[in-house]
Amino acid sequence: MTESGEHSLALRHQFDTVEQQRDASTLGMWVFLVTEIMFFGGLFTAYVIYRTLYPTAFEAGSHHLNITLGAINTVVLICSSLTMALAVHGAQLGSRKALIACLLLTILLGSVFLGIKAFEYADKFAHHLVPGPNFQFEGPFSRQVQLFYSIYFGTTGLHALHMIIGIGMLSVLAWQARRGRYSAEYNTPIELVGLYWHFVDIVWIFLFPLLYLLGRH
Amino acid sequence: MITAPVETREHYLNKEYGIRSWLLTQDHKRIALLYLASITLFFFLGGMFAVLIRLELLTPAGDLVQSETYNKFFTMHGIIMVFFFLIPSIPAVLGNFLIPIMIGAKDLAFPKLNLLSWYLAVAGGVFALYAMLAGGVDTGWTFYTPYSTAFSNTYVMSTAVGIFIAGFSSILTGLNFIVTIHRMRAPGMHWFRLPLFVWSHYATSLIMVLGTPVIAVTLLLVAVERGLRIGIFDPALGGDPILFQHLFWFYSHPAVYIMVLPAMGVTSELVAAFSRKRVFGYAFVAFASVAIAVFGFLVWGHHMFVSGQSVYAGMIFSFLSYAVAIPSAVKVFNWTATLFRGSISLQTPMLYAFGFIGLFTIGGMTGLFLAALGLDVHVHDTYFVVAHFHYIMVGGAVMGYLGGMHYWWPKMTGRMYPELWAKLGALLIFVGFNVTFFPQFLLGYLGMPRRYHAYPDEFQVLNVMSTAGASILAVGYLLPMIYFIWSLRYGRVAGANPWKAVGLEWQTASPPPTENFEETPVVTHEAYEYSREREVVGD
Amino acid sequence: MSDHIVPKKLYYMIFGALIALTLVTVGASFIDLGPFNNVVALTIAVVKALLVVLFFMHVRYSTRLTKLVVASGFLWLGILIFITLTDYLSRGWLTGVAQ
């Protein structure tokens, strides 16, 4: 039983069949995503507690976030989820062109998201809303507003870090796809990275309303 | 005189030689031994701090070290023992070695991740060691804020990073075990034919995967708050230190089940093997493991009864803490029922199993004392708590670990340890343990606070007893270190099944071949089929 | 995980729903619905997440085990948030001291 690179199915020695390997890999990715849910979960918990304790301050903080940019970013990520799903689809059909095109589109959309996020961060910095010694907020509850921004930067920062890692993985996949590594018989890595990417999208699906929309009224 | 050449059978230890073959191995059995080396090192490091603590506490005055230094001793003792010894111990050594073999697989699902887990555990340990050598940490292993984020002048960040990294080691191990147990069982190995050791590791893995990420993100926030002076636990910013405690204990309570469930799994194996009987109520024990894992997530507030948490929440946590004791009790009853009318032999592993059952029961029952809200107010932060958790973690988990090490040592190395010395070691450990920790229940109940390096004169007698016990315990721990190493060269050669036990691991050679079995086994019998007249592979 | 290939048309439909829901949630945030603003926003978020999980992540076509794993993840997050919240919401309900 060889496992060298040129064997496109790449059956590892601990597995008996390719199906078993694929099932195990997918289950492994799902278990990993559960750990990610709990990892982000700590921050979500902090958000829920402090919003409950300081609703007015959190609304005030939320008002200074740009809802248009947030909404655009949400749409961008949803588009990237579509292109990711289409990439998996392309791989499943053995269509190398579709796979690579969709991977590249996903990378592009992810980068657009990060670009907009960077712009938002720069804006916050300019308005002294970055927590730390330079934080300034005119109005009552400024300490709790700083808390809001700590959570804002913590959650979106962690999310952005996950996106950067995701883009990295997608780039590797695109490069490997160009070299003909994937086929209708073997496309597990595409599926797995797809799961990861959709998860990161879901985190944003919750972050957007929680940070930008709640308490607008 | 011509000596006939001896043909050495190939197995996982002699298949390849050289340091690269060990440091780059993907063989779960070799990784288990890598872990054995690293956790033993951490055990002695943590033990060294325990020695310093007990030395200071020989006298009522704080005369060995200053209080700031003493704070570092108990902090480092706790951190090293919990995160770098106990949490990995049984799963990373015995679990890694045995789970694939017990289910009839060739390796874990993700061997490369397994190796990565070890490197992460070591890397985390390096960060913690650096903190220790650079000046130490004094926050207590619990890192309560705002002391840890705003006021402590010690190496909090480096330690937090070390634990964060080690946490991912734990997460990946749990992930590996879950996928392996679900997807790689041999033909015929149904869930209810699995050894209870596997069930308990499955339950442990659930906790590792669901709980560890929370402490990871929490310590990350502590490091960020400390480093960048921004954060969410700082009262000066409107943050709440109690939120830290909620997030910390959400993991750290289930963590104690990570530490004890594997030892329970070992105990099930030992009790069955050395009574030559099926475990009574197999399904109940299996479900109890999962129940402990699940319920264990609902009780964390019992560490926070006096923190400022709401009394109402305290009552709910108290009630649930009583509930979580029930599946543990079920296991103790079932082990006892297994012993009843069993054909009991008192070899060393069995001695450790008995030790586990007795000491875990005492530790567990004193946990019920602590779960009572009113009583906890009196004994919180006293030596009563310290005694309680050492009964479970040392009297329980470490005994389980040693019992398992003795039982499976012949399988892992192909050599038997010397039985007489092992019995002596077990005796010294049992006696030393009780002399060390039983007085601490009394001390705590009488009011001696924990984490103090000085105490009122009237507590000295019990403290001296405790330190005396610690010296006996230390000797007891040194013995296995010595004779295990001795046995590698001079121990009696063990066959495939020196204990005449039932289980897939005893049906392959000692030490096993790299692929674990010559042929994938097909399982047709239930677990622990001792009662039937069976062909058991012996030496 | 089955080898089920989801038709592209379904992906496009889900995509359309996600975009539509995004527009709805943004629009709703500008209307004063009192306490229901938060309920609406969170419900829409949950629906969007469900669509992504079930269709983009193929959970609809996955094994029972996968569904259990996904559900457990969210359940555990719920346990963390809910029980912690219980503490904060019930502070002051019982003082433990006779009035």
Polypeptide structure, described:
The complex is a heterotrimer of chains A (217), B (539) and C (99). With 217 residues, chain A is mostly helical. Chain A has six helices and no strands. Chain A has helices spanning 18-53, 55-63, 67-92, 96-126, 142-178, 188-213. In chain A, helix 1 crosses helix 2 and helix 1 (18-53) runs parallel beside helix 6 (188-213). In chain B, 59% of the residues are buried. The longest helix of chain B has 35 residues, at 241-275. Chain B contains 16 helices and no strands. Chain B is mainly α and 539 residues long. Chain B is 66% helix and 0% strand. In chain C, helix 1 runs antiparallel to helix 2 (36-56). Chain C has helices spanning 8-29, 36-56, 64-89. Helix content of chain C is 70%, strand content 0%. The mean pLDDT of chain C is 90. Chain C has 99 residues and is mainly alpha-helical. At the A-B interface, helix 1 and helix 5 of A face helix 7, helix 8 and helix 9 of B.
Helix and strand content put the structural class of chain C at mainly alpha
Proportion of residues in helical segments of chain B: 55-70%
Succession of helices and strands of chain C: HHH
Task: Work out the radius of gyration of chain C.
Answer: 19 Å
Short structural summary:
With 539 residues, chain B is mainly α. Helix content of chain B is 66%, strand content 0%.
Topology, pairings included?
The complex is a heterotrimer of chains A (217), B (539) and C (99).
Chain A: H1 18-53, H2 55-63, H3 67-92, H4 96-126, H5 142-178, H6 188-213
Helix pairs in contact in A: 1-2, 1-5, 1-6, 2-5, 3-4, 3-6, 4-5, 5-6
Chain B: H1 19-23, H2 28-56, H3 67-86, H4 89-103, H5 111-134, H6 147-151, H7 156-183, H8 196-228, H9 241-275, H10 282-295, H11 311-339, H12 348-371, H13 373-379, H14 383-413, H15 419-446, H16 460-490
Helix pairs in contact in B: 2-3, 2-4, 2-5, 2-16, 4-7, 4-8, 4-14, 5-7, 7-8, 8-9, 8-10, 9-11, 9-12, 9-14, 10-11, 11-12, 12-14, 12-15, 14-15, 15-16
Chain C: H1 8-29, H2 36-56, H3 64-89
